[in-house]
Amino acid sequence: MAQTKTLRQRIQAGEVLVALRGSVTMNQQELADVWSKGKYDYIWIDGQHTAFSEEQLVNYCAAAEALGIDVQLRIPHTRHAYLCGRYLDLGFSAVLVPEVMEPATVDDAIAYTYYAQQGRRSWGGSARRGLRSVARGMDRLAYAAWWNDYVVLSIQVESVEAVTNIRQLAKPGVSVVTFGPNDLSFSLEGHPGYPLQNVDDCMRNVAAQLQGTNIRLAMGTATKPEERAKYLEIGITLFQEDPPA
């Protein structure tokens, strides 16, 4: 089978990618039908603000993998960064940690996203991404090496503190910084003296701070294609899109 770029490689290459905002209530056929109606590159699942069971997550990720689709989960809470490995054991290719403000949160996310010697994620889980396909025949060390080059770890910037300290938060092991415009607006409204007065200025500031790194920028809310020009100018290359009506 011909080798293709992984999602992480495409992200790092700066490709403009679009995530379908998915729902874990869909079965494989429903997912295939929705996927066929648009040009999407991966699926984004919101575990922070929607209800789910672990069985739903396992079944959804299995259905997506059967269709060759990578799935990202925004985990339920900032303080659950230590559970990144647990969620990845359910079959996700990528995790997003919301409302990151402190380096210790990123340290936990990195530690439990990556296997040794890059991290300390525990070995195990029959639903893990790749075990059904690309990783067949791999031993423990080979799979761990493959995974450490495959997974996508993202952190979400939703506060003036995160904007100010992004160079301390965007550590090696983080692939994407995602903007949360709504909560960032709350934060700006609570800091009237902050020198950056709007979300767009914050995005530009973060982009400038991360210039020259291998970290890409993402929008954390849905956008339509015609709305993306100004974000592309800022340097954002990852977008989300609602499913077709």
Question: Can you give me a brief rundown of this structure?
Answer:
This protein is an alpha/beta fold and 245 residues long. It has one domain: Phosphoenolpyruvate-binding domains (TIM Barrel), CATH 3.20.20.60.
* Terminal residue distance: 35 Å
The CATH architecture category equals: Alpha-Beta Barrel
What gross morphology would you assign?
globular
* Strand residue content: 15-25%
Largest beta sheet: strand ordering: 1-2-3-4-5-6-7-8
Number of strands: 8
Q: Low-confidence parts, pLDDT < 50 over ≥5 residues?
A: none
Give the integer mean of the pLDDT values. 96
**How is the biggest beta sheet arranged?**
8 strands, parallel, barrel
SSE arrangement, N to C: HEHEHEHEHHEHHEHHEHE
Radius of gyration: 17 Å
- What is the CATH first-level class name? Alpha Beta
* Alpha-beta content class: alpha/beta
User: What is the tally of helical segments?
Assistant: 11
Count of folded domains: 1
Helix content: 25-40%
CATH topology: TIM Barrel
- CATH homolog superfamily: Phosphoenolpyruvate-binding domains
Structural account:
This protein has helices at 7-12, 28-35, 54-66, 84-88, 103-113, 140-148, 160-164, 166-169, 181-189, 199-209, 229-234, and strands at 17-21, 42-46, 71-74, 94-97, 152-157, 176-179, 216-222, 236-241. The chain has 245 residues and is an alpha/beta fold. The protein has a single domain (7-241), classed as Alpha-Beta Barrel (TIM Barrel), CATH 3.20.20. It starts with 6 loop residues before the first helix and ends with a strand. The model has no long low-confidence stretch (mean pLDDT 96).
